[in-house]
Specification:
The complex is a heterodimer of chains A (309) and B (249).
Chain A: E1 2-6, H1 16-28, E2 31-38, H2 42-50, E3 56-61, H3 70-81, E4 86-90, H4 93-105, E5 110-114, E6 116-119, E7 122-127, E8 132-138, E9 143-147, E10 163-166, E11 176-183, E12 196-200, H5 211-220, E13 223-226, H6 228-232, E14 253-257, H7 263-269, E15 274-279, E16 292-295, H8 298-308
Parallel strand pairs in A: 1-2, 1-4, 2-3, 3-10, 4-9, 5-9, 12-13, 12-14, 14-15, 15-16
Antiparallel strand pairs in A: 6-7, 7-8
Chain B: E1 2-6, E2 9-11, E3 33-35, H1 37-51, E4 57-64, H2 69-78, E5 82-87, H3 94-108, E6 112-116, H4 127-135, E7 139-149, E8 152-159, E9 162-169, E10 172-176, H5 188-194, E11 199-202, H6 204-207, E12 215-221, E13 230-232, H7 235-245
Parallel strand pairs in B: 1-4, 1-6, 4-5, 5-11, 6-10, 7-10
Antiparallel strand pairs in B: 2-3, 7-8, 8-9
The chains are: A alpha/beta (309), B alpha/beta (249).
Chain lengths: 309, 249
């Protein structure tokens, strides 16, 4: 068996999500090749070659792949992927955008967001917002799969010595173009990879009040997240959203502040090791999943907590 | 221009699902069903494009058993012009739906196809992308803004870390994210009017599509329960527990 992993990167460095995908690939077994497609992405390829367990790094350096447009990238992966038994990518917005397109071009079904590898053809994945776990078996000649990053340990960033091979194929479908992007700037750790996450919900009242969460987060070295209610109310930008339709996190410690705990939100964080809930409504569903619950006014409890940790 | 919108009948998002005791699937008997929330956003966007004078006709399509006509009627009540149901009792995977949708697309020849980004039952997030691949159309997934001008559609996409804008040649495929719009409610007169709007029923055989899947569902289980936690009385106690018991800070 041989497995092709699509590297997630920003043309400068390899995203940690890819390391978890490499681990999932190792659990399936076989040679693991990593495809780095981008523009000026040589440094990423060097990084990928160091990752423990990677046999070969394929580099497709071309302007057509600069912004990972699905139309172009899927043609490349489909061409390269025909020789592989599995094609894997992180269940990130990039992986979710590109991989189903690859699967359809190969005329195979795709398995999304796996959380466990049972065998080379059998996988577990959450359905119904994480309220049920399905075990599925695929008979497709090429198994196209996205991997939930938080469900697998990250492969070591060093210890590997993969060969780096250039692939020439430039596919430009010519149907789409990158116009621009607007990335939220943050000095705090990335939400999906943080060891501690502090999240606020509708109970925060407004965007300014998130300052008290930022203070707590900075003290803990934590990332700040939010519930859909807080995002929809315009308190914070949407890339902070934790939940079924936002980011899935599984940190050591998750602190939910002013979050009631709707199914949609729980789907994004209930794999966290320790969950702390601070809410003034003692009936809030979040207390049913919290390891430690504090029934209190968050505007008093959070500053006090910041002072004491 | 003509807009095709795909909608799916799913369990109502407020219902907490229960796994069947024999672990074959989740139990959907006597459970409230509704139009998938992302599909509702897709219908709303199409209706807004019509109100702006950009779209001239909205066709809404759903695949599944007869009951999904209910969701098509809902979409018609929200402002779609006519409906197509592809009737099948088979459980459809995303690739099968994408193939059926391609067959409908080939007959209808719309300029824009709008889908939700994912259905809240299977949580796949595949159909829009697969359909785009099969038709060779460009895709604007996870859209939070859609603007049609000069034969192109500009789509602002929600990506990890922020927003990205792409320009797609028409015809194109757009899948909706939550913040694209706030869907309206159907008014009673519109619900009555929707009953008289045309609704065609086809079968996969009419469309010449095989709906077989290469994925077998072996088992469905309830997720592992979290062990019950405790309520602490004060911030001091919380800090003490986190430091000494859980050892996470």
């Amino acid at each position: 068996m041989s497995i092709l992993v699509l590297a997630e990167h920003d043309n400068a460095s390899l995203n940690a999500a890819t390391l978890a995908v490499v681990s999932a690939a190792k659990a399936i077994g076989g040679d693991v090749d990593v495809l780095v497609a981008g523009e000026g992405c040589g440094a990423v390829a060097e990084q990928a070659a160091q990752v423990d367990g990677v046999s070969k790094v394929l580099v497709a350096d071309n302007a057509a792949y600069g912004h990972q447009l699905a139309e172009n990238l899927s043609l490349l992966i489909t061409e390269l992927g025909k020789g592989y038994s599995h094609i894997l990518a992180a269940a990130s917005t990039t992986g979710k955008n590109v991989l189903p397109r690859v699967a359809a071009l190969l005329d195979v079904d795709q398995i999304s967001d796996i959380i466990a590898v049972e065998s080379a053809d059998t996988f577990k994945r959450p359905i119904y917002a994480g309220n049920a776990i399905a075990t599925v078996q695929s008979s497709a000649p090429v198994k196209v799969i996205t991997v939930r990053g938080t469900a697998f340990d990250k492969a070591a960033e060093t210890g590997g010595s993969a060969s780096v091979e250039q692939v020439g194929a430039a596919h430009d479908a010519g149907t789409s173009a990158f116009v621009g992007e607007e990335l939220a700037k943050s000095d705090r750790p990335e939400l999906a990879a943080a060891g501690i996450v502090v999240s606020g919900g509708r109970g925060m009242g407004n965007g300014e009040n998130f300052e008290i969460l930022y203070s707590l987060a900075d003290k803990l070295g934590a990332a700040v997240g939010a519930s859909r209610a807080a995002v929809d109310a315009g308190f914070v930008p949407n890339d902070m959203q934790v939940g079924q339709t936002g980011k899935i996190v599984a940190p050591e410690l998750y602190v939910a502040v002013g979050i009631s705990g709707a199914i949609q939100h729980l789907a994004g964080m209930k794999e966290s090791k320790i969950i702390v809930a601070i809410n003034k409504d003692e009936e809030a569903p979040i207390f049913q999943v919290a390891d430690y619950g504090l029934v209190a006014d968050l505007f008093e409890a959070v500053p006090e907590l910041t002072g004491k940790v | 221009m003509k807009v095709l919108v795909a909608v799916k009948r799913v369990i109502d998002y407020n219902v907490k699902v229960r796994v069947k005791s024999d672990n074959t699937d989740v139990d959907l008997t006597n459970v409230k069903m509704a139009i998938n929330p992302f599909c509702e956003i897709a219908v709303e966007e199409a209706v807004r494009l019509k109100e702006q004078g950009v779209a001239s006709e909205i066709v809404v399509v759903s695949m599944g058993p007869k009951a999904c006509q209910e969701q098509i009627r809902t979409a018609l009540a929200l402002g779609a012009d006519r409906g197509i149901q592809v009737e099948t009792e088979d459980k459809l995977d995303s690739l099968a739906v994408a193939k059926l949708l391609k067959a409908v697309y080939d007959e209808e020849k719309p300029d824009l196809v709008i889908l939700g980004k994912q259905a809240i039952d299977s949580d796949n997030n595949q159909t829009g992308q697969m359909f785009a691949a099969l038709t060779g159309l460009p895709q604007g997934t996870f859209a939070s803004e859609v603007k049609v001008a000069d034969g192109k559609v500009s789509v602002t996409r929600e990506i990890d870390g922020g927003l990205q804008t792409v320009a797609l040649n028409l015809p194109a495929v757009v899948t909706t994210d939550l913040r694209l719009n706030e869907p309206r409610y159907a008014s009673l007169p519109n619900i009555m009017k929707a009953k008289r709007k045309p609704l065609d029923v086809k079968t996969p055989a009419d469309l010449g599509v095989e709906v077989a899947s290469s994925v077998t569902l072996l088992k469905v289980e309830a997720p592992a329960e979290r062990s019950a936690g405790i309520k602490v009385g004060s911030v001091d106690e919380l800090v003490e527990k986190l430091k000494n018991e859980a050892k996470v800070i």
